[in-house]
Amino acid sequence: MSELHTLQLIGSKSFGGAERWFQRFSLALAEMGHPTEVGVRSGHELDGDHWPGLTRYALPMRTVWDPLSRFEVKRLVKQIQPDIVQTYMGRATRLTHLSAAGDPVHVARLGGYYKVDGYRHAHAWIGNTKGICDYLLQAGLPQKRIFHLYNFADLPTPGPPPVDLKAKLGIPEDAWVLMTPGRFVPFKGHRFLLEALARLPAVVAGRPVCQVILGDGPLQQALHAQAKTTGIDERIVWTGWQLDPDAYYRLADLIVFPSTYAEPFGNVIIEAWGYAKPLVTSASMGASEVVRHEQDGLVFECENGLALSQTIERALSNDELRQGMAEAGHQRALSEFARDAIMQTYVELYRYLLEHH
User: Fold this and answer.
1) Using alpha carbons only, what angle is made at residue 259 by residues 128 and 18, rounded to the nearest 5 degrees?
2) Is 37 helix (H, G, I), strand (E, B) or coil?
3) Residue 221: pLDDT above 70?
4) Mean pLDDT of the region 99-117
5) From CA 225, how far away is CA 244, in angstroms rounded?
6) pLDDT for res 100
7) Residue range 26-41, pLDDT digits in tens
8) Measured between alpha carbons, how far is 46 from 15 in angstroms, rounded to an integer?
9) CA 107 → CA 11, 77, 118, 249, distances in Å?
10) Choices 3.40.50.2000, 3.30.200.40, 1.20.120.450, 3.30.530.20: CATH for 165-336
């Protein structure tokens, strides 16, 4: 099969879950043998050494309406002449207009319920949940150009965390480790996690409980203040944002995902399954679509600290339940969210769109 040359464009300032997916996807596409180039926002966090083997272009992407930024995108596309241009979120999508004869296919990839008017000019749309695809259809986009493709899960080789990681983090050797990754923004629900920790006994099933939180963001100061005010700060390890959270997933006894209902998907869910870790998650939009309560995860009511506390305590108190959920989740990761299968589906979709462009 012939190679596909793609340009992947994103306009974010900093790394979060969506940006980490953009990175993982671009690298995976290149590993399949398809020439992959990335365009990122100039001078910001993604404009760094995160793209081994890929050509990176720094673009201004100042605002969604800036004519110079739009011109720079168009000039780059004309310069490198890819087959496919895939854009992520609003800024990159709004700045990409490819309507002339001979232009490549423009695919807008959506991981959230964004205002559709900024996406209508694309040639095709990918939603990473069925709910997002239904939303696009209801907004009047043509069904034959809307495609549902889940994100893939990392499937690491089994193994323990780095030696002495607990000691380096100041965690007692016999402690339960709860792990929560995510940007400190309102819809990630960290305030409800802290409420739950304040209600949770310090010792469950004979072991102390420690919460590891991976992230940073605008709510950082407020969350630290909440933890101190409620007297739980000593039970929390704040690691900051981790571009590679592998060691922390390996360390965890339980993955806790406390997002509000507004969470459209949540890569944390499938990452927990990929690492064969038991999962506690809120009943967010994304989790409600993919998680099977009491089979591959425990689901609690969104924005309910008491329910989250009770659910964590239940999970830690039942070894059989945790093991069963971890095994079932891992099977989901293998059968429904495997990288090779999802990436091959992307490539097949690209070929289909080129044939019907």
Assistant:
1) 40
2) strand
3) yes
4) 94
5) 27
6) 83
7) 999 999 999 999 999 9
8) 7
9) 15, 14, 13, 32
10) 3.40.50.2000
